[in-house]
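Sequence in, structure out. First:
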Amino acid sequence: MKEAKKSPIKKAGWWTPGYEGLGCAIVEQAVHDWRYLISKNQRKRRVYGRLLSFTELRKFFKSRYCDLLLLKSDPKKILAKLESELQEAIENGDFRETL
């Protein structure tokens, strides 16, 4: 059984209140979505009527909006970590780039 990956988002504590907590939760969902795509071996997938794709998630992590959501983390560092997870999955044969 694989161990759960730790969140790359730095939080103030175990529970982050207010706008900071909401921002962290939004970015945390994007991290989860990225890892979900890897686990399903797909570059894009429709989930609950919305399109998830590495391309859209990359745009999100590079956006000013994502920058504003995170006060204690750098979205570009998070994206770099996620990109390395994807590369590792490709190299290990856990993810085959299918269309």
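Second:
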Amino acid sequence: MTFHEEYLRLKAMHPDAIVLMQIGNYYEAFDEQASTLADVLGGLALPLKDGSHTLMAGFRLNSADRRIKKLTDAGHKVAVYDQVNRGALKPRVLNRIVGP
């Protein structure tokens, strides 16, 4: 399963929230939520390098509290999924849902 496919699965469980998915040392969002992240946080939403039109945007884990607050202050609900290391697999579990 690709990161984007996993993201779509998680997003389907939280259609009313921006889903942030931990990938390594970053929280990432895809598609229209990547555009929202870029607009609210002042960054860029860039296309994946796989040739698709899928957008991706994110930020480092160490800035998460500040950036999630900025998203909720702008009226967005946020679902945060963290990686759980178990051998070579890195499943993601819901850490928290934060609302305005």
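Remark: The helical segments are 3-13, 31-41, 64-73.
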